[in-house]
Amino acid sequence: MNKIALVGKPNSGKSSLFNLLTGLNQKVGNYSGVTVEKKSGYLNKIEITDLPGLNSLWADTVEEQISQSYILNLIHDETPAVLVCNANHLRDNLVLFSEVADLQIPMILVINFMDELKNSNSSIDIKALEARLGCPVCLMNSKKGTGLDTIKQLIQSNGFKVPNSFCRSSYDVFSQDVLTNKYVSNLLTNEQELTEDKLAMIEKDFAQREMLVSKILSGGILIYDEINDKLRKRTSQLDKILLHPFWGIIIFLAIMFLVFQAVFSFSTYPMDWIDQLFAWLSGLVNDKIQSSWFSDLISDGILPGLAGVMIFIPQIAILFFLLGILENTGYLSRISNISDAFLQSFGLSGKSVIPLMSSWACAIPAIMSTRTIDDQRERLSVIFAAPLMTCSARLPVYTILIAVLVPEEDIGVFGLRGLILLMLYLLGLASTLIIAYIVSRKSQYKSTGLWTLEMPNYRSPNWRNVFYNMYLKTRSFVVEAGKVIFTISIVLWFLATNSPKNEAFFQTKYQEYQQLSSNTDISMDAVRLEYSYAGYLGKIVEPAIKPLGYDWKIGIALISSFAAREVFVGTLSTIYSVGSEDEQPVIERLKKEVNIKTGLPRYDTATNVSLLLFYVFALQCMSTLAVVRKETGHWKFAFMQFFVFTLIAYVFAFAAYQIIK
Known about the structure:
Helix content is 60%, strand content 7%. The protein is of the alpha/beta class. The longest helix is centred in the last third of the chain and has 34 residues, at 463-496.
């Protein structure tokens, strides 16, 4: 045995067990041929694959199909499986166990949340349950890691056993397909037809399994004390408030407001320290390295580019930390429930909430997660509109522009900068819903089917998971953005420090600028930058962006940020560092930047608001377009999406600048 699979329903704690078993020894990729996330790691030399959560082998969403096909292929690969159950929904979880057990795959059953079981004065007779199921059963508390050693020992000693079959006869319908692998192929291509007869058979199969599971848990094996289940009572009481159709939404908005306030308030000092550190390093390099070009490369190219990423680590980490708490407490699942009726007005359903909220981290996994949406029109609406949700890549752009635009003031107990950030997030959300409605209005989609969602109990966060996921997502942001920004910083430095013009030309232009605006402190380095290769590149697009209040320097940042939005900050940091002996942080440089023709601040209110609105709407992300093309099957959809969002961004930015200036 050199590999195993982790199987389980959503909210079972399967991924928590995966993190405990593999630690930092894991990687994330995509399944072959599809854009569904695949997590794998190692326990010693044993490869562990964490499959996407699924409710049944008969489910039809694409993510569940991936898990289904993987599980069905275990028959041929002779790979064992660990199935994780939620102790609070044991009967329901064991129905899934019965389906996998009928495939006669060697298994271990892990029952999670044993602490909650004990708190409700409930118990499970593990030995008796093992005898009835025919495979090892372990109790576990994923929050504290209780029971982990037993699970590791069973895995490493190959303690898997083929469980007893439940209702094997119902597999006659597709038994031959399983053996010939046709069923797996049908799942992946979504060509399986569920006739009325087959649907009736599936319903009968579920009824049989539920009856058998009830018999297995009878006779004292599961003693569940509903009267003393304090956790369930607390959950029920909280849901009366948090799932209220009006107050639930108000409370959600209030919580998200506090999250954004915290992002600004708690990150101020570490961001200042990082900014000052890179300014100090830049000065140190200039003092210690004798070679002029090499010193300039590091101090004006590499360090400013890296600073443009590293400075936002505190904000990104705090955002993911707080969202992780909300997810681990079971609160985010409630948002899908209370938003279903509201979203139907926009042609969506509660199933769209998780992909849309995932866009707050990144539109790419959000677009991938739309495969859980059954209705094709709704899915395409979410794919088209999701990039308007404010992703983490926009956060650096918003942060630096808000810091330049807005003084650090409070309105009562609330920070003014945090309020503006919340307004930008709400604008992105409103735009997403409007665009989704426009895309889906021809189909006039209504959520006619029965939409269900398993609500986990409210519980204190699993801090190990919260911090670990915060680390993984922050690392991903830094590494992925860092690669792009490092490369672009080197290229920009080269373009900004080289020119087709000679020294005599620079002297002439310098004198012209001095005569044009005596109030402006023009340096020769600023003239050299304007007529460098980078300057000419910016001036190519300057006529198009000048009505928005942008100059050629901002034009360079706009072009480079198409690779990734967060590159905007690194580009400005590099551009304003070239030829400058000023070692101040980039925010201070932006505040002092002036229009060399007018002597007025370059980043005035009109320009800043214009830039903020441009980045609210613009689809400045090549990776997102590539994923959209992958998910929709053609470039036409992606190009139309890019054109529409760029046009909207231009119109709003133009209107804002012309009105405010």
